[in-house]
Amino acid sequence: MSLSTLQSGMYGTVQALLKEMSGQSAPQTGVMRWSLHRNLEDNPSCSVSLIRALITELDKLIQIHETRSYTHTIPALHTLSYVVMQSGVMIPTSVYQKLYECLMKLLMFPSPYSSVALSTLRGIKMEMTTPGSSYLRRVTAEQNLMNERFTLQEKVFVLADPAVFSAPLEAAVRTHLEESSFFTDTMEKNVVLHVLQTGLGTSCQSSTLAQALKALGEQTTKTYFQEVVQAVEKSETQGAGGCADYLNRLQRIYKDILTASKEEQTELDQSSVFNTAMPYPEINFHLWRDKEDLWNLLANFAACCASKSNAFDEEQKDKRDSVRSVDGGIERELKESDLDDVAPPAPSNPAPTLTRRNAIKTTKAPQKLFFMRDKMDLHPESPNKDRRRHTARVVVLGDDRVLGRVTRAYHSIRERESKCHILTEKVNLRFYYIPVSDEELSLTPAEGPCQMESRLSLASLLGRVDPWYNSNINSLGAAISKLAGTQSVHKEPKKPSAFLLDTLCYYLRCGTRPLKLPLYSVKVRRICVDDVSMLDVHSLVWLTALCVQMTRSGCDVIKEMFVSHLEAVIPEFRPLIEKSSQKQGVRPRKTRAEVFGSVLSVSYTEIALSKRGVEKGNTPMTCGVVIASEPAAVTSSRGHLTVKFHSVNPENNKTIRTQEISIRATQSLTLSVCLDKDSRCTYGNIQRVEISPCLDPGCSIWSKSERELLFSNDVDKVLYLPVNTFSGVSP
């Protein structure tokens, strides 16, 4: 196929991808993107043509900048970054230069498009001076390939809500995710092959190099892997001036590998590019049954990282003590140039260690973390850079209810860290959300009573803010919901499709920009009663990311976190609400005996157009109250709460916007309150509800410069739940 025909075909593919995203069948775009990446893995030589097609599309977006049409910017930039990272071929300097100029022009776009363009620009600049570095860093972190330069580790935890995942669905998803298992003995070979192919281009005979690496022993392969890592690190330190030295060093490593291989080289097709597709990271799938599961997983991960790092330090110290090394039967003396690149041994810390008697046979994860703290403090994270942290990527599967559990767990972690700083200093926590529902998928909440609305309201919110998230991740959730039915149809075990695993990995690698959902503190005052039958476990309560304090008959205070919505319903009027929902659009006939609700005393600060609060009080006649959080990313202004008062009589319905509100039942009736539409978080006999923004309990773990700004009005002290998306919007 001619170059012009190939490039024209790639441009047509990009146009179809972006057109589908803007159309009615947006969820199908996830399949198109996956097919495009799959084809690119099978034919790496098409990467340059695809990059040229994306540059053409970006130039087109720049020309129509005045029309303020930015929908295609995020998909084009993320596709571009992903192609450059895993291409495996040398990209011509002329293409890089044109791409650099194009990205510089995108910086004039509004946020978040300019922010994503800036992030892409930084990655492109690094690839221009050090080809293959982004692939090396990503694979090294995901596969936990310990080396002297990159000691950071990553772990992926997938937590599924048992309320959504039935036994067949759990088995089907677990089967698909188990495909991420692989043999780690080929990881170093793939990294070496990819970096040499990308850096040397046509001077690297890919098939011959792959054959030579296959013939080398494991220890010898690790030696060359370390040399490649050292070359990348040195080039990044030197910047653009070290590019020539970097390529010369790659050329020397390439020749050494061919010389060291004892297997006779056969005649192979030298024009082909060897496939070095990015391997899957290790994925740990769990059903989230206990509220302490997340803390235990993070504690085990932090302790494991400390143990591996200390063991690796001991191994490297033993190697440095010897002047000569034997690798795979090849004995050679380290050259002075190699010794310069080897990091000096970590200084020993004479701090005394505690000795314990063998009295504790089993320990819980939090206890184990405290026991490992001394070792974690002794280990330097990086021999030549500031102390950095490992990364725990937590992917939650479910509907609004599972995000409520995430919110409570996240607030608990922040609260614990405010008292004792352990996890925060060592682990970066990243949240990812894939909406999966046990009901019929409806990403657009229906108009009507809250108990009839979809539990995927946050998925709908994220999809509106980030169309690329809607196209790829919301469509993935719909595919996951159908896995159980697909498994039951086929009697014989069917080979799992790679769509789920590939899309999940794409989300983990490119979904790096968090969208912050504000949390609110709720104080609920409960009346003490003997008749527990008043508890209504079927009522639904709406609120986005709230911190709850409940006071029961005296001094019983409960603190919780929940995410989606809060609904307060008068149980005695629930039949009227359900009857009214069946007659939507039909105005009920008034009679003197009709009751439209109970009197509630409401006090709130209304948000005016001037963004100034106005104190107001009201006593509406209502059957229930629905409170939904509207983040700043959706409102394009100040985040607020939308409060809807529902009555059987539509004339008495009212909607207000506020950030603080207090609701009190003035008659003998009480409220039933439920969090996140989750019957497991339902509380009855409530007389008073007070809602206000929740402050971050982890302010004490901020850095010194951040604490100095604590008393400034510009510092936002509200706690947010960060959910990673492709665009990200800050509050």
Automatic annotation (TrEMBL):
GO cellular component, one term: phosphatidylinositol 3-kinase complex, class IB
Pfam families given in the database record: PI3K_1B_p101
GO molecular-function terms, A-Z: 1-phosphatidylinositol-3-kinase regulator activity
Biased composition (Basic and acidic residues): 314-337
Highest taxon of source: Eukaryota
GO BP term (any one): G protein-coupled receptor signaling pathway
Record region (Disordered): 314-357
Signal peptide: none
Protein name: Phosphoinositide-3-kinase regulatory subunit 6
Source organism of the structure: Gasterosteus aculeatus aculeatus
Taxonomic lineage of the native organism: Eukaryota, Metazoa, Chordata, Craniata, Vertebrata
